[in-house]
Amino acid sequence: MATKVLMPQLGESVTEGTISKWLVNVGDTVKKYDPLAEVTTDKVNAEVPSTVSGRVTEIVVPEGETVAVGTLILYIEESGAAGGSASPAQADAPVSAPAATQASTAATAQAAAPAVQSAPPARQAAGNDGAKQRYSPAVVMLSQQHGIDLSRVVGTGAGGRITRKDVQAIIDAGGQKPAEQVAEAQAPAAAPAPTAAPAQTAPAATPAPSVDIPVATGDQVVPVTPIRRTIANRMVQSKHEAPHAWTMIEVDVTNLVNFRNQVKAEFAKKEGLNLTFLPFFIKAVVEALKEYPMINSTWANDKIIVKKEINISIAVATDDALFVPVIKDADQKSILGIAKAVDDLAARTRAGKLTMDDMTGGTFTVNNTGSFGSVLSQPIINSPQAAILSVESIVKRPVVINDMIAVRSMVNLCMSLDHRVLDGLICGRFLQSVKQKLESIGPDTKLY
After folding, report:
1. Fewer CB within 10 Å, N side or C side of the chain?
2. Where is the composition biased (Low complexity) (predicted)?
C-alpha cells in the first residue's frame, strides 16, 4: 500500500515550493517524522517530514523543481502493507506533510525554475476573474521583463493563480497575443474550439534574449543562490509596488549610553545575557507605535489594515543571506524580554534553527545597520509592512547645547515609508516620539 506525499503548505500565502535537496533515495526505509527533503519557499527553508513509516518507492519531483502546494512529490510503501505496489494506480489517498511545524532552517528563498503542477480542471482558469490576483515575486519580475500584462493571463495554478510557468509559456510562444487568443491558446485540448487550432499549431518563436553581460578574463562568476534570488525578487517587488519616501531624525543618546554602561555588567551576571543597545531602541519604537497605530499597518489595495498586534521584525545577517525573524507581541515585553527575544532569534538564525512561525506575522521592522558602522541608510520596506526603521551607529559628535559646544553620543534614525499609507506628518510625529523616549532614558528606566 503506497502513500502519496504532497508538497505541504508552508505558510499562509505560500503557493509553491522548490525541492532543494532530497534527503532520501528510492529504497530507503524511513520512520514517521523522518525528514524526506529540504524545501525552499519565498518565506522559509523547511524539512518535509514523512507522514508514515515505510520504504521510499518513487521520487516524483527532481531536485531544483518548483511545484505548487498539493503536488505529488514522493511515494512511500507503508511498513506492514500486504504486498502493496508502489505504483500511482494503487496509491492511497494523498497525505500532505505537516512541514509548517517541522521547519528546521529559516531563509527567504524562492527558486526561479518554472513551476511544475498536476493538471487542474479547466474551470480553475476562471479564477483570474473577480477577486484581485496576488502574484509571486518571480511572476511579477518575469512579466515586467517581457512586457506581459498579467490581467490578461489565464492562470493554471490552484484557484486560477498565475504561475511562472504560465508567463514563460507566453514568452516562449513569441509574446502576448490579444486577450481572446491567449484564452484560446491555454484552453484544454478537448475543448471544441476550431479557431484555436492555428494558435496551437503555430511554431514557437525564439524566446526574448536576456541581457548579455560580457565576462572578461579574470572575472569571477558567482551563481545566484535561491536565497539571493528571492531577496532580489522581494526587493524589486517592494520598490515596484510601494512608493517609497524617506525621512531621518538625529537623537542624543548620551544618557542611554551612560545608563547601559552602568548596568550591563550586573545585567550580564544576573541574566547571562549581554545587554546591547537594540532592545532599548525596539522598546522606544513599540511605545511610539502604540501612540501612532497607523504606522503599524499595511496597504490592502482598497483598504488600509491597522494591525492590532505589534510584532517587530528584526534583520539578522549571516555570511550569505539576510533573515528577518519576528519578535511576537513586542508591546507586552520589558527591555529584558526584548533582549532575550533578540538574542534567541539571532542565535537560532545563525544556527539555522528558525521555524516558519518565527518568520511570519511581522508588522514593523527595526533594522540595526549601526552594528556594522553605518551612519546613514535608506532601507527598503519589508512588504507588506508600511514602514521600516534603521538604527544607525552611535557616534560621538560635537553638538550645540545652550549655545555651548558639547561632545554627545548621537545616533541617526532613518525611516522608509509606504507613501500610499503614510505621510510625512504622522511619520515625523512618530519619530519625535521615539526620540523623546530614547532621550529620557536614565537611572529610573526599568529593565524588567
Report:
1. C
2. 111-126, 178-209
Question: Cα(414)–Cα(283) distance, rounded to whole angstroms?
Answer: 17
Place of cell 476550431: 194
Does residue 126 register a pLDDT over 60? no
pTM: 0.61
- Checking DSSP bridges between strand 95-96 and strand 312-314, what pairing results, if any? unpaired
CA pair distance 128, 84, nearest whole angstrom:
41
Give the Cα separation of 390 and 371 in Å (integer).
11
**Cα 223 to Cα 271: distance, rounded to the nearest angstrom:** 43
**How many CA atoms lie less than 13 Å away from 236 in the CB half-sphere?**
16
The residues near 361 (Cβ < 8 Å, ≥ 6 apart) are 309, 311, 326, 328
pLDDT, one tens digit per residue, over 286-334 is 999 999 999 999 999 889 999 999 999 999 988 777 889 999 999 999 9
Nearest by Cα to 331 from 357, 296, 356: 296
Cite the active site residues. Answer: 419, 423
270 CB burial (10 A radius; 0-12, 13-18, 19+): exposed
Closest CA to 380 of 288, 315, 299: 315
156 close to 71: Cβ distance less than 8 angstroms: no
Residue 215 CB neighbour total at 10 angstroms = 9
Contact 394, 385 (CB under 8 A): no
DSSP symbols for 264-314: HHHHHHHHSS---SHHHHHHHHHHHHHH-GGGSEEE-SS-EEE-SS--EEE
User: Does residue 199 surpass a pLDDT of 50?
Assistant: no
Residue 88, C-alpha cell as written in the block: 500511482
Domains and CATH numbers, the chain: 2-101 (2.40.50.100), 119-210 (no CATH), 242-439 (3.30.559.10)
Q: How far apart are CA 17 and CA 71, in angstroms?
A: 10
Beta bridge partners, 388, equal 365, 416
